[in-house]
Amino acid sequence: MSGARGLRVAVIGGGPGGAHCARRLAEAGCTVSVFEPRSHFEKACGGGIPARGIERFPYLRDQRLPKKEIRECLMIAPSGREARFPLLDPLFIFRRADLHTFMLDRALAAGARWVRARVLSFHRQGNGGDPEGGRGPGEAMGPWLLRASVPDGADAPRGTHGPFDFLVAADGAAGGARRRLLAGGPRDEVSQGIGYYLPQVSEDFITLKYFAGLHGYLWVFPRPGHSSAGICATLGALPASGLRRLMDEFLLTRYSAGVLERSERYAALIPAAPGDPRAVQVQGDGWALVGDAARFVDPLTREGIYYALESGDLLADALLRGRPDLYSEAWSRRFAPELSRAAGHGDRVFDARFLERLVFLGSRSPAIARVLSDLIAGRQDYRTLKRRLVLAAPLVGVHLVTRALAARPFTPARGSRSIDR
To answer: How far is CA 156 from CA 112, 171, 284, in A?
Structure first.
């Protein structure tokens, strides 16, 4: 691949990662087609982007994009103990429908073409139905051809689309592009997420609730117009009915009995980040995965929007340099060490005893609260988290003693004398 101008790129999926990559490539003169059957759609998630994401992609501050700026967090341990602390850097929360429309519009404004169709299959020209097959020794792979269906009433050509020089799979964890490109590979682990959109809940803080024995958590994130309440856990660890029961009990206890009235249910599969992201294939000859399709998520929080944007950006960089092979290397260098560390400590982080201590200290010590705030903002690397908590230990003791002394009324010792002035 010698250069970017004139490169013909098919992007399957118009979410944040795919749309961001499409805009950057279109701005540089590539011919980009974004295959996305939906124009305005929600997604089952909280919708939060940490402060580092807003700083990296400042166009997300655009006033035309509705958002909520949250500056406080309520964390609840399995026992019900609570810690409420300020977020030194705000968390920005979006309705996914608004975010998707905004991102897709930016890509179209840069010159990308929107094909409102669902991709059914794809293959290399001259290679039949096999995405990677049909090539002899030393023979170059042919361009991509895509077959797509069109929603009723949509204005888009039916049938086969192409040819394309490069294929970007950005259709999420449950999309068909990843499965087809990695056919025969190991089965991916996933988490399940279920929840509600709650029009009757409007708060100015986020809620994170943990449960004993659950490798996951419950969230309530206020969005423009409603709140997103959900719960996630490793698929198969607990039946969906069990997750729903935990969530319903919490919501009905925390809020009024009518909190679920006019609510809308959702459910989705969330990719599970691999223990070693460097060992996972995310690209091949003429194709690459981005965002959820590449399993680029935080293994503890399951947060994925920021990583989708970063992966779309890194892939665009590699393609514009004419070196798509640099994409996975750049991702591994920037993010694999941190995410590998997090994946290896999931059992400890979700241990009930650890969570109880963390919430207790977060409610008592400003030093620990700052660590938690920086974690949510994406400023605290998982690799240095333990060291920072250890260094904060002396400050925790000081804060606890200070609070204890402030709470106790002063009683003069027996036999002491007051001084009259």
So the answer is: 15, 19, 29
